Junctional adhesion molecule B-like
Amino acid sequence: MRNNMKLWTLPLVITLLHSPVCLSVTVSSSKPQVEVHEHTDAVLTCEFRTEKDQNPRIEWKKKGKGVTFVYFNHKFTGPYAERAKIEGATLTIHLVTQKDSGEYRCEVTASEDHVSLGEATVTLNVLVPPHVPSCEVPSSIFVGSGLELLCKDKLSVPPATYRWYKDNKVLMATTDTPYSIDTNKGTLKINSVSKMDTGMYRCESSNSVGAPKSCVAQQLKVMDYPLNMTVVIAGAAGLLALVLFCCICMCVCRHRGCRNGNYQGLGDVRGKYLCGLMVESFTSAVFTDL
């Protein structure tokens, strides 16, 4: 029985040894996610193995709104021409910036292989330290007004978080404080400002990549409403009352017959004079106040 099995097995082994093995080009990356700091070098690894072809075609592409070539026909293209190199299929980009962040694809074409194309994807994330944020602080505001201070750092990666300072003391918002702070958006809100809110305000942006950065402190002055503003408001209210009183008097005058010559026994001339004088006085007073 064993001898019969050996007789059957031997031809099978010989057949397998002499049969062509159908392998294809294989492409992979030992580090598909790469994070580096801005202005350093980024190494995008790409390893491949072919069946027969000893000189496969190697290409690198970057995906964005479309697909652009990084390395094609043994040459670097566009902005990579002066600051990249390739060893085997591994790509190195020198002095990367945030614009270099994105998804890259390594493609290896072995025309002599059974399956001629293989590819691997590497994602590059360029980390950017905080930049000096832009801060919006008004120079003055009236007591009782609402206030929102703005702070933004658009360049840092990962996105910055924010802290506000008043007179170089950090502001910490709680349920008891008259203000609120959004550390992700960089806003400081005060619903109703008081004289105690006067001071020097600045904002600081920070992330995990580099040292925090702060804008220049700016003066905020909280002022009382000026006296002439109070006078204007009171004068406007008085003027409105005067006009209303004038209208009432004219209506009463008409009702009693001023227009028909009945002036309560004062005589036509005196009655007309008094009625006209009253209207003229009210009109003059209105225009004088205005």
User: Anything to note?
Assistant: The first helix runs from residue 2 to 18.
